[in-house]
Design brief:
- It is a single chain.
- The protein is α/β, with parallel strands linked by helices and 177 residues long.
- It is built from 5 helices and 10 strands, in the order H-E-H-H-E-H-E-E-E-E-E-E-E-E-H.
- Strands 1-2-10-9-8 form a 5-stranded mixed sheet. A 3-stranded mixed sheet has the order 3-4-7.
- The longest helix has 12 residues, at 165-176.
């Protein structure tokens, strides 16, 4: 998706790899696994430092959880990178069988709705000052996309559609930085 939006990308697996990039996408997956692997490979503290220093980051689904300052429904001791003044509820929409798709009103991307794919998705329960709500699920009103400064997070997986607008928005944030 980043290549489609005009940006090269490279996997980041080590602190040296993190030091070599200008911005970071924290992908979907399993947030406890991402946290444990980041801790094991010495990436958690460097990630926290880079985000605190203003590195642009985009978190999708589990990545949203990783960018949240607070988690509801996490495992005991679960840590995050933090940086966004939000409280996120893990697996808020239910189990894998409760995954769904919805068209979202996402004004920052233009007038056309955004088709979103939610897989065991979180939602944002609380936002702090300086957090902009970008999108909500129409049927429930739950917050599913937010921005705070150079940080962007969605509870859905835009990479599972052909629509690169979320990634293009992130690249605009990177260019602003």
């Amino acid at each position: 998706m980043l290549a489609d939006a005009g940006a090269p990308s490279t996997p980041v697996r080590t602190p040296d790899g993190l030091a070599a990039v200008d911005a970071l996408v924290l992908p979907g997956g399993e947030s406890t696994t991402i946290w444990r692997l980041a801790r094991t490979f010495g990436l958690l503290e460097p990630l926290r430092r880079r985000v605190a220093e203003g590195m642009p980051a985009y978190g999708s689904c589990a990545g949203m959880i990783m960018l949240a300052d607070r988690i509801e429904g996490g495992v005991a001791g679960q840590e995050t990178v933090g940086g966004m003044d939000i409280t996120v509820r893990r697996n808020a929409f239910g189990r894998q069988v409760d995954s769904f798709e919805a068209d979202l009103d996402f004004p920052a991307l233009g007038p056309d709705p955004l088709h979103a794919v939610f897989i065991r998705a979180p939602w944002v329960e609380k936002i702090g000052d300086g957090v902009e709500v970008l999108a909500r699920v129409p049927s429930t009103g739950n917050i599913v996309a937010v921005r705070q400064g150079r940080l962007l997070a969605t509870s859905f997986h835009p990479e599972l559609t052909a629509d690169a607008r979320v990634h293009a928005l992130f690249l605009d944030i990177v260019k602003e930085a």
